[in-house]
Amino acid sequence: QVQLVESGGGLVQAGDSLRLSCAASGRTGSVSHLGWFRQASGKEREFVAHVTWSGGTTSYADSAKGRFTISRDNAKNTVYLQMNSLKPEDTAVYYCVAKTIFTSVYNYWGQGTQVTVSS
């Protein structure tokens, strides 16, 4: 099992920055990818970004490219999402996710952290 605990959400104004953190624990040696999804009210969950745990290769949704940066600290078993130039449409619950080796889906999810961007 892998446990994921997010922190760093909050209420900010448009144009502000925010950094989300996600601490992983448990069988972290089995993790291949860590990332973030988000879900806005009344909408489906959508992929935001992920990073490979060993090589640090990143991938972003088009909505995140150029504004968000995902990074990881292997020593701390933590992944970060730096969000700059936030927009009201970024308002959502952000979920930390993990994918373990030999799986094709994100099989571990955190409890989520609310990000609200006011105009």
Summary, kept brief:
The chain is an all-beta fold. The chain is built from no helices and eleven strands. Strands 2, 4, 5, 6, 9, 10 and 11 form a seven-stranded mixed β-sheet that branches. Strands 1-3-8-7 form a four-stranded antiparallel β-sheet, with no helix packed on it.
Write structural notes for this entry.
The protein is mostly beta strands and 119 residues long. The protein is built from no helices and eleven strands. It has strands at residues 2-7, 10-13, 18-26, 31-39, 46-52, 58-60, 68-73, 78-83, 92-100, 108-109, 113-118. Strands 2, 4, 5, 6, 9, 10 and 11 form a seven-stranded mixed sheet that branches. Strand 4 (31-39) and strand 5 form a beta hairpin. It is globular and about 40 Å long.
The rounded distance between the terminal residues' Cα atoms is: 40 Å
> Tally the helices: what do you get?
0
Structural class: mainly beta
What percent of residues adopt helix (DSSP H or I)? Answer: under 10%
Low-confidence stretches: none
Share of β-strand residues:
over 45%
Strand elements, count? 11
Largest sheet: 7 strands, mixed
SSE order: EEEEEEEEEEE
| Gyration radius, in Å | 13 Å
Question: Taking all residues together, what is the mean pLDDT?
Answer: 96
Overall 3D form: globular
